[in-house]
Amino acid sequence: MIPELGHFALLAALAVALIQVIVPVVGVLRARPRWMEVAVSGAQAQLLLIVAAYLCLTWSFVTRDWSVAYVAANSHSQLPLMYRISAVWGAHEGSMLLWVLMLAGWGGAVSVFSRRLPRDVLALTLSVLGAISVGFLLFILLTSNPFDRNFPVPTDGRDLNPLLQDPGLVIHPPLLYMGYVGFSVAFAFALAALISGRMDAAWTRWTRPWTTTAWLFLTMGITLGSWWAYNELGWGGWWFWDPVENASFMPWLVGTALIHSLAVTEKRGVLKSWTLLLAILAFSLSLLGTFLVRSGVLVSVHAFATDPARGVFILGFLCAVLGVAFLLYAWRAPSLVNDAEISLMSREGLLLLNNVFLVVAAAAVLIGTLYPLVVDAFKLGKISVGPPYFNAVFLPLAAPLGVIVGLASVIGWKRGQRGELVRRLRWPLLVAVLTSLALPWILHRQTQVAAIGGSLLAVWVMVATLEGIWHRLRNRDNRWRGLLQIPRGVWGMSLAHFALGVWILGVTFVSLYSIERDVRLGPGDSVELSGYTYSLIDVQGYAGPNYDADRARVEVSHDGKVVAELSPEKRRYRAQGSVMTEAAVDHTPFRDLYVALAESLEGGDWALRIYYKPMMRLVWLGGVLMALGGILAVSDRRYRLERAAQRSAVHAAEAVA
Amino acid sequence: MTLRHVFAGLMLGLVMVFALPSMAQSKELEGADLDRYQGMINQLRCLVCQNQTIADSNAPLAQDLREQVRTQIQSGRSDAEIIEYVTARYGDFVLYRPPFKRSTWLLWVGPFALLLGALAIAVSLMRRGRQRREATAVDPDRLRKLLDEESR
């Protein structure tokens, strides 16, 4: 009964979404405010219906309803409650449901928080969001219905993929989808601007907080995914350039470009059509990522042919959405006039360069991800494109961004003075050079060009950002009060840039100075790696809720003192019989000690894999701080003022009525 | 449910298979040879896995390939010779760093060509702005400031 209710709620949501697409547009064409208003109630009704459908599926998981095919395929009677709830998005059908839930959530949020928008713009925006929703609801209902029944009803489920039975599953996908799908709002705003022909400073002010919010969720999602992979996969990597990761990284790069070009458009009224194009591109890449991951083409071009319904549907939908968006763009964008010049020696000039590098870097990731598919499709052979390619191509495209961040945080809008640039940046540069020469040597007693280069870039970004803050305080009598007067938008930007420096530092050291070793240890044996002694005490079996495991105890000592006791595990999940490694990590801000249990050897010995990874934490700290910067920027006073003004306007209107 | 379905079902999670690779007896290699070995096994693809290097995979084929790489290094072959040896047996698919050839030149040159094109467009954009400014002789920023003051 409950699954049928969920199914019905999805059908009703589809009907509401169709109304939400058509009625407001007709209202705009005929200038009927009442019809436009339907967009708002439609978005909210759609959200309620999809939440209901989502809860129905969750209920089926919680109550172990094996008569629902999707539940039976992705759960098990012994699966703990936490994973039964998050197993909803553990496979295809449910993750698509999460996708539309997020989309409806964003639509609902726009309908609540953007009441001050001109009525026609709001109507058009919500109508575009409704159209995307129609496509995905049809996709779910026609090809991937999570509520399909299962006859005969199996006695037990086939279990959630053990790889996903980790706290990472509970938070990573929702955050990632929030970000991924959140770019739909900027996309819808862009289309509304193109249709209505209005794109002014107000438009950028509405779009900025939405874009930044989506971006900060995506940042958190990617960071968490990296942390999860590091802990769960068992071989110490934190980024694999896997196509599935690239699918989320491309929208992030273009979204980052969009945040910066929105700033330029708002402050200087230039790059308007470019900003619109980026808003369209960011969401297009989200859709493309969905297509790549969902259609199965990533596994193989031939997998696409074996299950064509889903792939063809998304491909068709992708082409329709992009076709409409780009046609509209080609038709309308030329009428947007930029009314000011851009000089290279200005903040907007440097931000334009930043956009060039970010977008080309995203294009490089796209080329590398799609190339093997294209080559295979044209029967030119089978090739692999992996980390060596991406590192070789992406790094030279991304490194200039660090240089630009430092320059742009100091230079003024419009027309910067070269003399001022030199005067303000010579100290940061000196600090960066000295630190980068010393740091690798101090930390590792050996230095190399790449380590100096990476540290130079990292420290340069950090110090130049601090200089930007310092510069705002230089003439204040009371510097502490001055600090409080800096707008949160500036704090957010500075924090995110500083975080980029932290991230670069982490990446540099963990890439260049990590040590890994495969060792064979019996109980009582020990081995030394990078000054740390690892002693295997014993390996014992124990039974988890739905798995059986071997757990090792490894004592790590440094200079004769015990610094950590690590318990890596090897688990065999009962339902599917698959074996997973749970690595154990001891961390400080400066180094990770990472031990994974590989396999049992003859004579009671075990194979272990041991890593020493310096500054690993900084990589994720950088990601988290970037997202915090986003939160600060979104909470800036001017957006709150806008909302307050909007509330009082609504009250005034009500009073008049 | 095949393995492929499991993977297709996992959107944006990181897709890797099962347990750690078995222990290679790479202890026999030391110093520069060990570094070469590590570098080499980290850029060869396990042909039967889902997108994994032979360093990360536990499949028998990956173990076999690791073993071959080690023997080749021990017998004094150069990196280029080893790569030639594995591609002769398994094709370009085994290399995570695709070779530069007729079917892949666009892959290697494309991103940098795009960069040059994009930089050219950006520079011309900045030029055009300057020319227009000279032509109109009205400072749009000053104009906007005046308008702003008026509307205040």
How would you characterize the overall build of this protein?
- The complex is a heterodimer of chains A (657) and B (152).
- Chain A has 657 residues and is of the alpha+beta class.
- Among the domains of chain A are: 1-160, Up-down Bundle (Four Helix Bundle (Hemerythrin (Met), subunit A)), CATH 1.20.120; 399-511, no CATH class; 515-617, no CATH class.
- Helix content of chain A is 67%, strand content 11%.
- Chain A has 20 helices and 10 strands.
- In chain A, the strands form 2 sheets. In chain A, strands 2, 3, 4, 5, 6 and 7 form a 6-stranded antiparallel beta sheet that branches. A 4-stranded antiparallel beta sheet of chain A has the order 1-10-9-8, covered by helices on one side.
- In chain A, a hairpin with a 5-residue loop joins strand 9 and strand 10.
- The longest helix of chain A is centred in the first third of the chain and has 33 residues, at 201-233.
- The mean pLDDT of chain A is 89.
- Chain B has 2 domains: 3-94, Cytochrome C biogenesis protein (Helicase, Ruva Protein, domain 3), CATH 1.10.8.640; 105-151, no CATH class.
- Chain B has 6 helices and no strands.
- The chains are: A alpha+beta (657), B mainly alpha (152).
- Chains A and B meet through helix 7, helix 8, helix 9, helix 10 and helix 13 of A and helix 1, helix 5 and helix 6 of B.
Describe, in short, the structure shown.
The complex is a heterodimer of chains A (657) and B (152). In chain A, the strands form two sheets. In chain A, strands 2, 3, 4, 5, 6 and 7 form a six-stranded antiparallel β-sheet that branches.
Q: If you compute it from the alpha carbons, what radius of gyration of chain B comes out, rounded to the nearest whole angstrom? A: 27 Å
Order of helices and strands of chain B: HHHHHH
Segments of chain B where pLDDT lies below 50 for 5+ residues? 1-27
Rg for CA atoms of chain A: 27 Å
Helix content of chain B: 55-70%
Write down the oligomeric state. Answer: heterodimer
What is the CATH topology descriptor of the domain at 1-160 in chain A? Four Helix Bundle (Hemerythrin (Met), subunit A)
Give the overall shape of chain A.
globular
Which chain pair has the greatest contact? A-B, 91 and 62 residues
List low-pLDDT spans of chain A. Answer: none
Shape field of chain B: elongated
- Reading off the top of the CATH hierarchy, the class of the domain at 1-160 in chain A is best stated as Mainly Alpha
CATH architecture of the largest domain in chain B: Orthogonal Bundle
CATH homologous superfamily designation of the largest domain in chain B = Cytochrome C biogenesis protein
Task: Provide a count of the helices of chain B.
Answer: 6
CATH architecture of the domain at 1-160 in chain A: Up-down Bundle
Spell the H/E element sequence of chain A: HHHHHHHHHHHHHHHHHHEEEEEEEEEEHH
Q: Count the beta strands of chain B.
A: 0
Strand proportion of chain A, as a percent range, falls in: 5-15%
Distance N terminus to C terminus of chain A? 46 Å
How far apart lie the N and C ends of chain B?
Answer: 67 Å
